[in-house]
Amino acid sequence: MSFPPAFLWGAATSAYQIEGAVREGGRTPSIWDTFSHTPGKTAGGETGDIAVDHYHRFREDVALMAELGLKAYRFSISWPRVQPTGRGPAVQVGLDFYRRLVDELLSAGIKPAITLYHWDLPQELEDAGGWPERDTALRFAEYAQIVGEALGDRVEHWITLNEPWCSAFLGYGSGVHAPGRTEPAASLRAAHHLNLAHGLGTSALRSVMPARNSIAVSLNSSVVRPVSQDPADLAAARTIDDLANGVFHGPMLHGVYPQTLLAATKSVTDWSYVQDGDLRAIHQPLDALGLNYYTPTLVSAADPEAKGPRADGHGSSAHSPWPGADNVAFHQTPGERTEMGWTIDPSGLHELIMRYTREAPGLPLYITENGAAYDDKPDPDGRVHDPERIAYLHGHLSAVRQAITDGADVRGYYLWSLMDNFEWAYGYGKRFGAVYVDYATLERTPKSSALWYGEAARSGTLPPVEGV
């Protein structure tokens, strides 16, 4: 189970989930500040105002990463901390925070990997229409250039967008994520303008950064499986695959939207906002592709007699995040589940990796998120044992290693997440971290999974797991 010597062993976080300090240094509200402060939108009305206070504790957190043996750290830039209105010049005190963080990481021998957008759109841009408006993509390119100029000399790994599917379809379709809109046509417009933002942002980064730097995007591509080989179930799987995957990798990797996607959504939108030259702008050569994976998706053709919303693992809502997919039903996959209710299935990660090995031959892959939430609690002695997470990691890393054996060019793995944090609409109730955070004191305690993963990072092999 040895991994290649250059394999990057990392962990990942995002700005709004960990930083706190939402009113410091000129930062203005993002859509997640507004959403989390709206009654009824998050569990217990919890917000990221303090989160785990990484803004003030980043040196402690970097020291902890180094102690664990991590080789890489993927974090996101808070757009409203750097460019509060989403327009105009940067606030240097905001950039200075990330300069200090990068310097701290480099001095600890940890490779920084920057995600430019992890869902925290400046509220002022949402007030102007948000991602359904074309101008937001233009503003993103300007922001990308600002950050690239400031940090491109020291950071080699860059990611434009994290999980644009969530931004478009949970933010503007089902409304369970910020900004909480439930407009199917707007969600498809948002998807296109996120694609355009990726393409324009990639070009902007390349215009100001050294050629050695790697630019990628992180997609939460779904592993979509039909319940049977019945033609109706296969058609349902095709519809969801287009809406989950093809809507992004089609234009990004191939310069086209799938014809089956356009046909399935014609009752929702006419796609007239796709202007001449957009697909060329989106289809920029990438240096790598990031894949985020948690659980597979099981679908069938819907029972025409069924009424009401159909659960799909993305939170309860009377509104579907799947425009044009009224003929699809979602099913719970069998097997053990995490605290999120997501089935544990490492074979899905292997399947995903091999799909993109075929979809984008020659393009290096990184697993930019993978992990599990469990109900972790300290023992009386203060230690946090999480054998379920160790088993989860062992299974999924074994799938990555098998994919490498099968010919996939996977160059790194970023555990989600470095530490417990604000889990979006779930508030602080779901713990994904390898490091336990006491939310009352903000004390950090590495769980047993963090020690196991650190041993894997140092040795390049998977340590044994009891019972595996």
TrEMBL record:
For this entry, list what GO says about its biological process.
cellulose catabolic process
Compositionally biased tracts (Basic and acidic residues): 304-313
Please list the residues that make up the active site. E163 (proton donor), E369 (nucleophile)
Q: Which domain of life is it from?
A: Bacteria
PROSITE patterns for the chain: GLYCOSYL_HYDROL_F1_1, GLYCOSYL_HYDROL_F1_2
- Spell out the Gene3D superfamilies in the cross-references: Glycosidases (3.20.20.80)
What residue spans carry the region label Disordered?
Answer: 303-324
Q: Name one GO cellular component term.
A: cytosol
Which key words are in the record?
A: Carbohydrate metabolism, Cellulose degradation, Glycosidase, Hydrolase, Polysaccharide degradation
Q: What is its EC number?
A: 3.2.1.21
Q: Where does substrate bind?
A: Q17, H118, N162, Y294, W416, E423, W424
Catalyzed reactions per annotation: Hydrolysis of terminal, non-reducing beta-D-glucosyl residues with release of beta-D-glucose
| SUPFAM superfamilies for the chain | (Trans)glycosidases
> What is a GO molecular function of this protein?
beta-glucosidase activity
User: Which residue positions does the secretion signal occupy?
Assistant: none
Query: InterPro entries, from UniProt?
Result: GH, GH_1_N_CS, Glyco_hydro_1, Glyco_hydro_1_AS, Glyco_hydro_1_beta-glucosidase
Q: Which NCBIfam families match?
A: BGL
Task: Give the record's family classification.
Answer: Belongs to the glycosyl hydrolase 1 family.
* Protein name as annotated: Beta-glucosidase
